[in-house]
Every structure is written in structure tokens, then in C-alpha cells.
Amino acid sequence: MEIRHKANRIRLLNVKTPQMRAFHFSWLAFHLCFFGWFGIAPLMAVIRDDLGLTKTQIGNTIIASVAITVVVRLAIGLLCDRIGPRRAYTWLLCLGSLPVMAIGLADSFESFLLARLAIGAIGASFVITQYHTSVMFAPNVVGTANATSAGWGNLGGGTTQILMPLVFAGILMLGVNESLGWRLAMLVPGVVLFLTGIAYYRFTQDAPDGDFDELRARGELPPADGEHGMGASFAAAARDVRVWALFVVYAACFGVELTIHNIAAIYYFDHFDLSLATAGLIAGLFGLMNLFARTLGGIFSDLFAKSGGLKGRVRWLFIAMLCEGVALVFFSQMQVLALAIGIMLVFSLFVQMAEGATFGVVPFINKKALGAVAGIVGAGGNAGAVAAGFLFRSESLSYQQGLFYLGVAVIIASLCALAVRFSPQAEAEEGAAYRDAAGDTAEGALSLR
């Protein structure tokens, strides 16, 4: 799929162009999705007591919150190819808001588990975010655009950990008890998600020159069915071993981040004997690194591509993954709170740079099946979170032991990055496209103008 008139600069304060409106709405929507997706996590200590949940049951709800996302991410990428990211995001936000508000009705482990399972579909928002920026920005800045939009979206994981306990505390100040308080608190992100879905439909478009339906009517895009249909698109992506290598890589970076979002607050609460608010604040620092860390991963991907082409992007991805695994192993051994926080921030830096580096490579795997590739790789993140979830549901395995084994797995998974290779022809074509998009200007990819 060739989209014309992509932006070759990211002008942060310019919202007049469709490219920048898509950029800002995509990261904001993904950011807010975290309040629905993981808003329950920093309140889990209260919910554990209210519903009488065991550690195994909590682990099962963590797995449920990310398991369904694997399937939905696979489907949502194909849906983006067919109906466009604008309508796909609108439907996901509006429908996804319903189980977020309904989780307050849970009165048992089973009903709570089903609600978290349904809420997990919201996690597919990431694929649409990456898809939308991929079709809006040129090769010289697409890595930075993807990384920044996803990073600022992932920042929601940190702000959720900090703000949801404050929302909960504010509701308690109204005189309600804790059992009702956490239920009312989840109404807030549900309403916000529904309103965001309406705004996304109103203020964005699929591509620089219009929606996909309009482009197909003008003959600028192939039909949504036939040889370019959803089945053919998925088959083309699924046959490419590079897609599955990136699937594993993303499982070992974004999957790890999702796992940390789910366990960090309760880990600090139990292991260091902190208050719920303090544990949530410290856990939130991990996600707040997304303010710049994932963007750095994309910037470095674009910089490595300037001198090393597509091979340079892959080389940087391997370096970021390896450093992530080593940092996670060190974090798992920390017994002093101050050291644990410091190493966690280093680990957070590399895990998020690895995520940015991954989607600095994705747009170049198969442009005709971009949605399918993005969907499969994005699903890898949740598949990784599901696999990691089993480490933290066992009564016989401590959180520290689980984190250590997870770090070792990341180091091994980093080798999969080296399996991503490109033909000399693809290297030459993308090198020429990069130079054409960059032009002769020395202006930075990210600017305020």
C-alpha cells in the first residue's frame, strides 16, 4: 500500500494538518486506554480484600487482561487495512468503554475475571496508533513518529498508576466505603474513553489525502477484497519469518512492560511494606519514562538507518533488547528500595527504547500488508505478557524469582532481532526513500513549529 503526501517532519504544535491531528489523537487515545485497561491494577490491594482473591486468582486476572488482546490485535490490524484506522479506533474506544464501566458490578472472582477479559480488548488500540502514524509519516521520521505516539500513549501506564489511587481517594472523601469506592472510580475512565471515540471520528482521517473509502473510489488504493483482501494480507504477513521474529522480540519488551504495570504496585506494596498511594507512585515512575524513552528508541532507529540503512535499524533493536534483559536481571536482585527504584528506571529506559526500535522496523517489512504485520507483532506483546503472567501466579514462586527468570528470557529473545534481514533491493529502495524524504534540510525530525 503506497500512501502519498506523508509528512517528513513532526511539528508538535501544528494541528492543522491531517498528519499531526492523527499523531496527537492516536497517542492521546492510546494513553487514555491505559486508564481503562490497567486502571484496576493500582487498586488491586483493595479489590483483593473486597473480593477475597488469592495470589493465583490475581495472577489469572492479570493473564485475562492481556490474553484476549492477542486475538483482538490480530484482527484489528486487518480491520485497519479494510475500513481505515479512523473508524477502527472509534469502534474500539466506544465499545471498549462498556466493560470498563461494567467491572464495578463484579461481586465474585468469576465476574471480575470476565470483566478484565473483556476490558483486555482495549489493548488493541496500540496497533491502530502505530498503523495510523505509519501511513501518515515518511521513512525519515516514521520511526520517531511511531515511537513517540506509542511512548506518549504508554505513558498512560504510569499516569494510571498515579492518578487512579487519587481518584479512588477522592471518592472515599465523599463518604463512600472502599468496596463502593473502587467501583465508582472505574466509571471515570469508561466515560472518558467513550467521549474520546466520538472525538477521534470527528477530527481525524485515515490518510493524508482522505479516508480509505475515498482513496479507493479515486483508484489511489487497491480494493479491500480480492487479492488485496484481509485473508491475503494476513497470509502474506504470516509466511514471513521476520514477522514472527519481531513477534518474539515485542513479546520480550512490550509484554514485559505490561507485566510490570500489572504487578509493580502490589510488588512494592508487599515487598517493601509501603502504603497503597506510595506503591502506586513508585510503580508509576516506570510508565512515566515513556515521556521520552520510547521516543529515543525511534530516534535512534532513524539515526542508525541514516548511516546503516535497514540493517542499522535491526542492529539498534538488538542492542536495546540485550540491555533491557541485563537491567531486568539486576532489578530482580534489589533488596534496598532506593536501589530498586534506580535500577527500575534504567530497565524502564531500555524496555521502552526496545519497543520504539521494534516499530522502527515494522513499517518496512511488508507495506502491502502493513496492518497484518503490525497486528501480528503487536499481538506478540500481549502473548509475552500472558506467558510472563504464569510466572507471577504461582504460590511457590516469588515475584523476585519471576523477574529474574523473565530477565534471562529477554536476553535469549534479543537474539531473534538478528533474524530480521532485508534483501539488497529493499535496502537500496528504502535508502533512496529515506534520502528523498530527508531532503537537504538539517532541521530535526521533531520540532515545535
From TrEMBL:
Membrane-spanning segments: 21-46, 58-76, 88-106, 112-131, 152-174, 180-201, 243-268, 274-293, 314-331, 337-362, 369-391, 403-420
Family in the record: Belongs to the major facilitator superfamily. Nitrate/nitrite porter (TC 2.A.1.8) family.
Keywords: Membrane, Nitrate assimilation, Transmembrane, Transmembrane helix
Organism domain of life: Bacteria
Domain called Major facilitator superfamily (MFS) profile: residue spans: 22-425
Record's subcellular location: Membrane
Coarse class of the protein's main subcellular location: membrane
Mode of membrane association: Multi-pass membrane protein
InterPro entries attached to this UniProt entry: MFS, MFS_dom, MFS_trans_sf, NO3_transporter
Matches recorded under Pfam families: MFS_1 (PF07690)
Biological source species: Halomonas koreensis
Protein name, entry field: MFS transporter
